[in-house]
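Model it.
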Amino acid sequence: MHSHLLSGTGEQRMITDVGNIRLSISSFGTIGTGFAAWPKIPSCEYPRGSGIEHMFLGGLWIGGIKNIGGNQITAVTTAALDVSSVLNVAQGFEFTNIDSNYLVQSSSLPNDLYYSPKAISHRDFVCNFTDTNLFVPELNQRIPGHEYPLGLHVSFKSYAWNFPFADYFVLLTYTVKNVSTSPIDSAYIGFWTDLVIRNTTIRAPRGGDFYRAGGNALIDSMRMMYEWDISGDNGLADNYAAIRLLGTEPLQSKTNYNVWAFQDTRGDEWLQSPQTDIEKYRRLSTTFLNQVKISDAEKLISKAGNRSQLLSVGPFSRILPGDSVNVAFAVICAKKPGSPERNDDETRVTLINNAGWAQRAYNGTDVNGNNILDSTEIDLKGDGSIVRYILPSPPPSPKMRIEVQDRKALLYWSNNAESAKDILTNKRNFEGYRIYRTNPVKFTSTTKDWNMLASFDKSDNGLFYDNGFTSIAITDDQGIPTVKYFEGDSVGYNYMYPLNDLLNGWQYAITLTAFSDGDEQAGLPSLESSLLANEKNIIPGTIVNTADSATTVGIFPNPYSVSAAWDAKANIERGRKIYFYNLPQRATITIFTLSGDKVATLQHEQYVSEGQDIQWFSQTGSFNASDIQFSGGIHAWDLISDADQALATGMYIVHVQDVQTGKIKNGTFLIIK
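Modeled.
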């Protein structure tokens, strides 16, 4: 989880990191970055590591009528609106932090650095902000246009999970409290967004054309607005992005929808960007200003353009001083099949499914979503109240370990998932394990294409393969199941699966999941733990060698031909990689020209310094290069000299000295350009 304090804005940002959405969230509840720190900080990237962005910016809008200075004033407080840049304080950014705590994070995952028993999801963000300040406290700068604060304090919480059935949405919940001395009448609460779905690996987020490729639509029955890339990246940004209203307390059934052209005040009024508080309030309180039918509006907004959208709910007839209302939204992403211009029932199947799981997460113990805890639904508190933000849970991720070796890897794991219970059914639901691996040839910066290598599940219960766990159980010499321990590791491992026939020097992603048996009576399918939670990137190669004289330095590929499939393509001079192998535990590797000029010196140390810092790894999809696991006797190099120059065509000499024994080995390699 990364935290960033953006200069010129007085805000802190954090990025959701547990699921497949990397969503930027600010300390006053806005989402997206406006691409202010791209590519360092994602705005709303999905799938993780793909470079496909889904949002410029988004934030809360709250409008109402109240007595200010003896006059009935219609006022709207906005967290964000149509702007070209978010680098400095601008009109429309009217919330500021209440204190200096900014964003606080926690996690319900016991092994997470920010674990808390009070956490709701796998990654919670919490902050508090207000519209009562006329100046940004940290900067002492006047907020432009912020003349009539409503007198609000907002408690914000976001929730994200790593479950495969829930890693494509982030829930946003806002508790809005009237801290002024007068009531707020006819209040509306909305969420404004400027969605933009584009593949930033092929087009940087700048210039008007980048933003003018979105088609917009809505599904009234789901209280949801969404967008897709209809004409920009020719199928390379084949996703939907959506905002869904999940619910309110007190209940409000009326939902309003609005879409308008970015910073445009021409044409039909309902398509114009609202400028004043009166105009903004009219948007919050109506659908398309009551000037056009939804069906007719969709015919226009489904064409390519750069638009903002506003999803709002109300009216809350009166919010008295000290009273609060709560509203919850979801940011949802989904893969979109078919050609870019298509938007129909078939292309929306995954979007509808993902939005359904977001709603289910909000509903919690109110499984049927009728806002009443029925007698057939679990009463977690024992008082008949609904507990929200709970998902049915698969078994926890197994505790896993990989031993990387020469042309293979050994996968070990414990049986910790087998005794877990689902919180919603209070039943043990473990059924089995699945092992996945990526194809190294196609390992790029886009979503990993997981290939299931094996699946093992309980025998003789009529579910799945019924193949049992005997073939993977670790046993003693008499064939009796036993537990294996490793030095410095307190976890006991019960199972082992060999990953054979791997290519040395190629990067593989490996993961292990546990899955449940499903519960037909409760309407639950079989659920699987996160593929991301156990993901390990490995580089097979030779294991540590003690540098005996019979073993030479290995080098591959040799000769090295540039611009081959091996190279990363984003920055070709920095995207090369050659390996030295048959190395001792610690070694100094020195590269010379044939004339004896020293080119580079590398320090090798098993599991510590093995070349993970070269750019090839970051260019080819490694989310965190330091997490890559090598075999120990292999070292990667990018063919960049100590003088920061790319090596020229020619023959080079490699000199390897064992730091512990002083023994020396040599080798040669050829570069062909």
